[in-house]
Amino acid sequence: MSEGGAETEAPLVIVAGGGTLPFSVADAAIRRGRRIVLIGLRGWADETAMQRYPHRWIAVGQAGRLLRYARAAGARDLVLVGSLVRPPILSLRIDWTLLRLLPRLYRIYRGGDDHLLSGVAKLFEERGFRIVGAHEVAPEILIAPGRLGARAPSSRDLTDVARGLDLLRSIAAFDVGQAVVVADNQVLAIEAADGTDNMLAHIASLRERSRIPTRKGVGVLVKAPKVGQDHRLDMPAIGPATVEAVARAGLAGIAVLAGSTIIAEPLEVARAADAAQVFVYGIESPK
Fold it and tell me: Greater confidence, 112 or 220?
C-alpha cells in the first residue's frame, strides 16, 4: 500500500508543460497511490523525463486529442502544470474539436492569461472533466513561511518586499503578471507577457550597461498570485533556474507568498541560493 492509502480507481491526467514541476506533481500523486498519465506538450515537456511515466504527446491546440487520450485512460481529473508561453493563435495546431470552437477560442484569447486559462478550463469542464490544482494533488510543492537556505532578507529587503506586494495587489485587476523587481524602494520591472525569466534577463542587461541605480546585491524579486486568481490554473512558481537568474541580475534575493507559491526542487533551490549568496523567503499571507 502506498503512503497515501489504497489506489484510487480513476487515473489522473497531468498535462505537462516545461520545467520539472509536472514530474514533481506526478511523483507526489504516485506516492499517494494515484495512477497517472502524463500528456506532454510538444516543444515544452522534457522528453527524457516523460519516459519515466505512462505518457502521450500532443501539440498545443490539439484539444480533441487530449480529450480522447484522457477518456481512453478512464480519467476525469486533469492537472495543467508547467511553463508555457502563450503562442500566437495562428500558430496553434488546431484540431477538429477546437476548429468548431474557433469563434469562442478567439474571444477567450482576447485578454490576459487568467482570462485565457479560465476559458480553456471551462471548455474541458463542459465535456465532463474536472480541473484540479497541482497543489491539491501535491501540497508539498507549496513553499512554507520563512527562509529556504542560509540567508534571510534584511530590513531593507523587507521594505522592498512590502512595496512589491502592494504593487502586485494594485495591478491585479489588469491581469498582468505575478512578479515585480523592487530595489531600494524603486520599482525596476513588472512582469508582463515575456515572463519572469525574461524580466530578470532584462534587469541583468540593464545592470551590465550601468542603467540600474542601485549597487549589486540590492533588490528583490517579489512573486505572488493575482488577487482573485484561480489557483487551479496558474500559481506563481520558482525553481533553481529562478535563483540563477536572480543572481545574474545582481539582486539580493527572492520573496514569494508562502502557501500560494509553488517551488520546484526545494533542495536544489536552497543549494543554489547558498552558492549564489542570495535569499529565498516565504512571506506569510496577511490575515
Answer: 220
pLDDT tens profile 203-213: 999 999 999 98
**Rounded-to-integer distance, Cα 107 and Cα 23, Å:** 32
Question: Where do the domains of the chain lie?
Answer: 12-137, 142-283
In order of 31, 67, 168, 172, 245, the CA distances from 165 in angstroms are 35, 38, 5, 11, 20
Q: Which amino acid, residue 165?
A: L
Q: How far is CA 135 from CA 39, 74, 128, 223, in A?
A: 18, 22, 21, 17
Residue 240 in this model has a pLDDT that exceeds 50: yes
CA proximity to 87, closest of 105, 99, 73, 100: 105
For domain 12-137, give the fold: Rossmann fold (3.40.50)
Backbone angles phi, psi at 71, to 5 degrees: -65, -40
Question: Rounded to 5 degrees, what angle do the CA atoms 205, 240, 255 make?
Answer: 75
Q: 224 CB contacts (<8 Å, ≥6 apart)?
A: 165, 168, 178, 236, 256, 257, 260, 261, 283
Residue with cell 517579489: 222
- Kindly report the CATH class assigned to 142-283: alpha beta
User: Angle of helix 102-109 relative to helix 113-125, nearest 10 degrees?
Assistant: 150
| 255: helix, strand or coil | strand
Q: How far is CA 24 from the centre of its chain?
A: 13
Burial class (CB in 10 A: 0-12, 13-18, 19+), 221: buried
Within the chain, strands assigned E span 12-16, 36-41, 55-58, 77-81, 130-131, 146-147, 179-183, 186-190, 220-223, 237-238, 253-257, 262-263, 279-283
